[in-house]
Design brief:
Residues 695-717 have a biased composition (Basic and acidic residues). With 742 residues, the protein is α/β, with parallel strands linked by helices. The protein is built from 36 helices and ten strands. Strands 1-7-6-5-2-3-4 form a seven-stranded mixed β-sheet, with helices on both faces. Strands 8-9-10 form a three-stranded antiparallel β-sheet. It starts with 5 loop residues before the first helix and ends with a helix. Bound molecules: zinc ion (2 copies).
Length: 742
């Protein structure tokens, strides 16, 4: 896509940078590029609406990274592009992305429009600006950049530069694999101003490239390559190149003269003065003021350059239409007035987003809500003034308190618990979903926001939190006491060795084990309270293990309740059928129903499930998997603490979330197709791997990763692919085949 060889020429001015380089920037996104990437994959019928999913997570990523995206959709394709488009569509897109009614029956065009509309709809629910230009999307992206409304364009199309863009972000990837894993993705940053500084290579020369070497609209001049064109560019400034090309036909006399001079045997081919080269070598040249030899330094190069220009010129003017002024106009003439555009991030529409996601992405409401809430709260933190001035707070949330300070990716942040005083989201998530997935209200309503944004948007909230840190509140003291009480009791029942000193201090007689095992109301209460997860207390490993043992003794009927939870967690006995995965059986200590994880009898229950006839096969499958690979103690303990460590890799708790309870159909199919086994230890950021890693097949094997490198990432690789490097076909489809054939 774009101008032939341009990426190769610009390679020396490209920096592959971690994505956080885009932080704080406003970027124009050429939406059809993103759709096409997913669309090519969709051709394999892996998962419909991959483009939506892809778009959603990439967009979230940008928003939570403090990048403001502006989405640009294409209007009408330029007339002169039709030929190339139809040819290209025929080969690459199989009609998936036709840009022209002429080339198609209209069926494909309708489909692509439908896709665009869906994307636009979703983005609008996220509050994002979607703008439609009068021409190609990349042209409007470029105008926005040229007018300083955006810092750059996310696009795969090098036409952007011809339309006036300064900075293009290419090969955008939010992959968490590879060299930039730690920074959460990478992008190639091309800044044309750098090329202009060192090569005097700017927009006009890029347009000249399009005319001579070729682009989407033009085949270029037959027999002219990028090297000779670059040589021609060396002796012309960017401002003058188009006039020079135009003069090729008009200044026939001048070029005829050059031609004659080059072939003139009466002039020395070394210095260019009158006389033969042999005589100059022997007795010198009077113009060069030499008595032996002549000065070849200037003319020889000049002669080569003129020869080069003449060759290109002679080939070019073979075409009576050269230079194609309509092509020059396409690039240089503005079609859109960007100054009137409203690019501000508007309030996300949570309710409609959740409805949309349930319909088009088949996400359950609770999951959609979990995903969209951080987008709303980030918007609120970023633009507090938009809410302050409003009397109606419908559709927004209000912070209740700061739960704790966090440092995801080293960014000082707060975990905030939000409330819904206007009942905007009441009833949005079906009650049975919350129960079925054991979703704690507090977790559902918490997000992580950068401290600086919180300080600015909710200064009182931040102040209250700081105060609470200085003077610990009384209630928390009281709670601490209960823990101490409990751990003391647990020490007493010899689950851990009591310290001799403590025993000596005790005035009371130490209770016997029998006495303690009596299921007193109080102990039950404390255990339940601890187990509910709603308190803020940290439970250490010992306490947790002891707790389970206590309960084991105190609640002889717990096995039944566990079994119920087990089946419920698997998505059975529920009114709405749920997709199904191993994740449902992750023994998350936060899930109160799974509090008995350390109990050894679990295996018996699972055995029982496997052996019974009246159990659905799906459940049996999972049960067998469980038996094969029972969770280890290390799977449960200190989950909360680890979360904070993991947080160093993420920008928000959005990324820490468990991800969809259902393993994505796309994910599953792809792993099977590509021969990757389902990764049980997949990180919580797996959500983000789906895009690139699955598209590219990157999964963890080093050799595969290398093979799957997007061409053009490394300058030395771009040359090999230079002629076709711009095509998505080359980039993605053979890659897929390659991996599949492995
Ligand atoms: Zn000479
Ligand atoms: Zn001379």
């Amino acid at each position: 896509m774009g101008i032939k060889n341009l990426w190769t020429i610009l390679a020396p001015f490209c920096d592959r940078k971690p994505l956080y380089e885009l932080q704080g920037k406003t970027v124009a996104v050429d939406l059809s590029c993103w759709i096409c990437e997913a669309q090519n994959i969709a051709e394999y019928q892996v998962q419909p609406r991959m483009y939506l999913r892809n778009l959603y997570f990439r967009t979230c990523y940008l928003l939570l990274m403090e990048v403001n995206p502006v989405f640009v959709l294409e209007g009408k394709a330029p007339e002169l592009k039709y030929d190339t488009i139809s040819a290209r569509n025929a080969i690459q897109f199989k009609g998936a992305k036709p840009r022209t009614e002429k080339a198609n029956t209209g069926k494909g065009r309708t489909r692509f429009n439908f896709v665009l509309q869906q994307c636009e709809q979703m983005l609008r629910y996220m509050g994002l600006a979607c703008i439609v230009g009068k021409g190609e999307a990349e042209s409007l992206c470029a105008y926005l950049n040229e007018d300083g409304l955006v810092d750059g364009c996310i696009s795969q199309d090098s036409d952007c530069f011809a339309y006036g863009a300064y900075v293009v972000y290419r090969n955008f990837s939010i992959s968490t694999q590879g060299a930039y894993a730690a920074s959460g993705g990478a992008v190639d940053i091309y800044d044309i101003r750098k090329a202009n500084e060192s090569l005097k290579f700017g927009r006009n020369k890029i347009i000249a490239m399009a005319l001579l070497v070729g682009c989407d609209y033009s085949e270029g001049v037959h027999g002219v390559g990028k090297d000779s064109v670059m040589k021609l560019f060396e002796r012309v400034s960017d401002e003058n190149i188009l006039d020079l090309i135009r003069s090729w036909r008009d200044k026939k006399d001048l070029y005829d003269k050059y031609e004659r001079q080059l072939n003139d045997k009466t002039h020395c081919s070394s210095c260019g003065h009158i006389g033969k080269v042999q005589s100059h070598t022997k007795s010198g040249c009077s113009f060069c003021k030499s008595t032996k030899g002549c000065d070849s330094t200037k003319y020889k190069e000049e002669r080569q350059a003129i020869k080069n220009e003449l060759t290109i010129r002679n080939k070019a003017i073979q075409d009576p239409n050269f230079p194609d002024e309509s092509l020059i106009n396409e690039f240089l003439r503005r079609k859109d007035n960007v100054k009137t555009l409203d690019l501000k991030w508007k309030q996300p529409d949570v309710v409609n987003f959740v409805k949309f996601a349930s319909k088009f992405l088949q996400w359950e409401e609770y999951y959609s809500f979990e995903k969209i809430l951080p987008i709303l709260t980030r918007w609120q933190c970023k633009y507090p003034e938009k809410i302050l001035r409003r009397s109606d707070l419908k559709g927004t949330v209000v912070p209740d308190k700061i739960k704790k300070a966090r440092h995801p990716k080293g960014v000082p942040s707060y975990e905030i618990i939000w409330t819904d005083p206007t009942d905007s989201f009441k009833g949005l998530i079906p009650e049975d979903q919350l129960q079925e997935h054991n979703i704690e209200p507090e977790k559902l309503w918490s997000t992580v926001e950068p401290q600086d944004l919180v300080e600015a948007a909710y200064p009182d909230l931040a102040e209250a939190y700081r105060q609470s840190k200085i003077k610990p509140k009384k209630p928390s003291k009281r709670k601490k006491k209960t823990v101490d009480d409990l751990s003391q009791k647990m020490e007493n029942i010899s689950l851990s060795e009591p310290k001799p000193k403590k025993i000596r201090k005790q005035t009371k007689k130490q209770p016997t084990l029998e006495e303690l095992l009596k299921p007193t109301e109080k102990v039950c209460e404390v255990v339940d309270q601890l187990d509910s997860g709603s308190n803020k207390l940290k439970i250490n490993k010992v306490a947790s293990a002891s707790r389970d043992l206590i309960r084991q003794v105190l609640k002889p009927n717990f096995n039944t309740s566990f079994k119920e939870n087990f089946i419920q967690g698997a998505g059975f006995n529920s009114s709405t059928p749920t997709k199904f995965s191993q994740k449902d059986f992750s023994f998350d200590p936060d899930m109160s129903g799974f509090g008995d994880e350390s109990d050894l009898n679990v295996t018996d229950i699972v055995d029982d499930i496997v052996s019974r006839d009246d159990v659905p096969n799906k459940l049996k499958e999972v049960a067998r998997e469980y038996l094969k690979n029972p969770p280890q103690a290390s799977d449960f303990v200190d989950y909360k603490d680890e979360e904070d460590n993991n947080a160093a890799l993420n920008t928000s708790n959005f990324f820490l979330d468990k991800g969809p309870d259902q393993e994505d159909l796309f994910e599953k199919t792809f792993r099977k197709t590509l021969g990757f086994e389902s990764d049980e230890n997949s990180s919580d950021t797996e959500e983000y791997d789906i895009d690139e890693d699955n598209l590219m097949g990157k999964k963890s094997d080093e050799p595969v990763k290398k093979d799957c490198e997007v061409p053009g990432n490394k300058p030395e690789e771009t040359d090999a692919l230079s002629s076709e490097e711009d095509s998505f076909c080359v980039k993605y489809v053979p890659l897929f085949e390659r991996i599949r054939n492995k």
